[in-house]
Amino acid sequence: GWGSLPTRDRLARCHGLFVSLLQAEQAHKVVASYKPSKFDRKILLWTGRFKTEEEIPPRIPPEMLDRARNKARVKACYIMIGLSIVACFAVIASAAARHESLTSWNLAKKAKWRKEAALAAESKTK
């Protein structure tokens, strides 16, 4: 036990135990050192981290804001994907309403190019 150790070794052992306890306690406490801006507060609310703006503390851990920003990025990407799909269907629907297809549009464009090329060839031969 402790009685057989010299005094300096006892102190070193106690100091090591104290330091490891202190480090363990600090690992659980994250320093809230970042003051969120108005935009950061909106992100925290939009991602569901806090329900109201009054709940947001004056200082938050940077890791909390990083997680909220990542969540916001993912949400924004999903929204953009959804809007792109909706836009694709809107273009298809508008073409169908005018009774156009890509094939007919392509054929008309190629016919126009052939006509222009023929006119250009005629003007060169004159």
UniProtKB/TrEMBL annotation:
Which GO CC annotations does the UniProt entry carry? membrane
Query: Where does the protein principally reside?
Result: membrane
Membrane-spanning residues where?
76-97
Cite the Pfam families for this sequence: DUF1075
Kindly give the membrane topology term recorded for this protein: Single-pass membrane protein
The entry's localization annotation reads: Membrane
Keyword set, alphabetical order: Membrane, Transmembrane, Transmembrane helix
| Homology family | Belongs to the UPF0389 family.
**PANTHER family referenced in this protein's UniProt entry, alphabetically:** GROWTH AND TRANSFORMATION-DEPENDENT PROTEIN, PROTEIN FAM162B
Q: What is this protein called?
A: Family with sequence similarity 162 member B
